[in-house]
Write a structure and sequence with these properties.
The complex is a heterodimer of chains A (about 400) and B (about 400). Chain A is mainly β and about 400 residues long. Chain A is built from five helices and 18 strands. Chain B starts with 12 loop residues before the first strand and ends with a strand. Classes of the chains: A mainly beta (about 400), B alpha/beta (about 400).
Chain lengths: ~400, ~400
Amino acid sequence: MASPATAAGRTPTTNCSHCSTSPAARRSSPPTSGCTSVVATDCEQQYLRPLRPGDEITYDSVIESVSERKTTRLGTGHFVTTRTDVRAGGTLAGTHRFRILKYAPARSGGGTGRGTRPRPVVNRDNAGFWEGVRRHTLLIQRCTGCGTLRHPWLPGCNACGGPDWDTVEASGEGTVHSYVVVHHPPFPAFDPPYAVALVELAEGVRMIGNVMGVPYGKVRVGLPVRLEFRSYDEELVLPVWSARGSRQPVPGEPAEPPGVPENALPPLEIPVTRTLIVAGALASRDYQDVHHDPEPARRRGSPDIFMNILTTNGLVGRYVTDRLGPTAVLREVAIRLGAPCHPGDTLVLTGTVESVDGDAATVRVIGTNRVGRHVTGTVTVTAPGEEPS
Amino acid sequence: MSARGRDPLSGRTAVAGIGATEFSKDSGRSELRLAVEAVRAALDDAGLTPGDVDGLVTFTMDTSPEITVAQACGMGELSFFSRVHYGGGAACATVLQAALAVAAGVADVVVCYRAFNERSGRRFGAGVQHREPSAEGVALGWALPFGLLTPASWVAMAARRYLHRYGLTPEAFGHVAVAGRRYAAANPAAYFHGRPITLADHAASRWIVEPLRLLDCCQETDGGQALVVTSVERARDLRHPPAVVAAAAQGAGRGQEQMTSFYRDELGGLPEAGVVARRLWRASGLRPADVDVGILYDHFTPFVLMQLEEYGFCGRGEAPDFVAEGRLPLNTHGGQLGEAYLHGMNGIAEGVRQVRGTSVNQVPGASRVLVTAGTGVPTSGLVLTADG
């Protein structure tokens, strides 16, 4: 959001304009006493019109909700949701919904180090498969006795009992044979709901994998998919399956809008430096000590300072506008934070165009660091821009 | 039994005693203590003493060794002890093991038991994120990195295929849940005693892993259940009428995996249950139409439907209507959906009660009961009949 020309709204009552509840919130929710720590979890912004020199800006904030007491990985506390409406000359120019967790830290502290995907289980019988995946080849075992292809990898053929085998490289074409959508329980490395498919390869064997390029609700039996490889962290490469654009209608399934071919945006790697974290916090007027001073950060269970949500929000917006070109205009950014970003991390942003409606496009953005998923979000842009440049 | 003579095991042994702890969400005591309490209760029910026992059978997953249960129950020497693998698929196979031992003269009185703090301790529903690189670990490891981490997620893959194959919606699973909870509502031992549900409740319950909703998934339970197996002759002299083991069988299909049999021909069925079904019908000389009560393992509702089809109660894809029409009394204790999740062992106890005529939801004149074990894994089944 552009800097306000004048701020006629209520002045923040504590040293952080984003990460603290107002006195009213504290009055309405006595149990937050003892909740000494705060972390922002969600940020949703809508940009209805740009701010221009001379605009008189007013804003007002309301507390939309205070949750029941919840126990999270960080600790026990309350989610507080506020909404700020920003007006320019009396006309709504933007909205800003913010959710924070005010909590008493869990004794175990920050909960870092979790959040990575479960590793493949590798031994001598299947090491060749995972070595292939690291080289971005998908290998299918073939019995040299009877020629039968097989997956999962085993040291013998179920068709003829033959012990000898070689491999063939999969063509990468497949269809969804079955699928599920996981909602519960939440695992730190995943972001429910998410789809997991059983893919039948063109060669006839089946493998489990995630389907990319379509929302989880659009995965269907019979959906044609194509192999890709994706790095999740320094150690983990997995085969993933991208929905193909030219899908055939599947008998018995409701008709789906055509998929968007080649809808994945190139990734963006952002080195998370101490300077980025501190400068981002100050630029977004967030003076919480955990974003600039390592000592208080450690006292609150974090290994170091961590990036504030509005810096992430800005980076997500920048990623999408960088990738879609100079005419793209941000209309909505909604993000949820997961694993924190600390100095020394590399944040890798990836995006998938989920839908295109007229001149509006919706992009799903995921940002991962070495711990796991830092941010998931949805960005709506319009292009070409309606505003004078 | 008409089958006697044709099958070397049929009609030779009986379940003579059943005993359980309370079914709870937090037992407040050790798994060993639960096992010991259940074993003692089953022996009391049979009118036997710990000193009469010379064999014990449990699950490989059980944490209470046979020798430790024997010590804590006051048993002496054991001449037979055995464990069965594959989770709930072991349930009826513990009775098969016991019956084999008794019929072969290896033991006279064998107690089968299963006890755990599955709700307050290690919850299966919490999922798996790491496995050692054994052959078993590797088999499950094909699913883990992609976020397929829970029993519900593994079953959902087959359930989706079942719906697709027969053009059904997830509401097709609802009748199984409603029937189980209806019986549980009338069973004071059931966790969900007094709490029936409707199809609308089922349809409104939240997704766990699509196409499975909360009410498609059984509960999680702390508790223990034990069964006493001995010869039919000895059982006739004990406290209750024998529940005769007319047939007992195990089965694994071609291309079988544990919960993730995704790579074999068709996901919309349970070939391992088909293996057990063929053996049970052949050994018992019975057909599906002869069965008075079905106790079908119900960790997840879709697998009850597939079992009905594999056992031949109805045609492929017809099980939702079969259940909706109430054509067979099913899981009269309330099942694992309604009574308790005791890895299928509480279902065997209900089969015994039906044959004795002592179930709280007694089917009048019931004398032939089919009991099955965990599915989606190598499984097992029993036909229990009244004596004579």
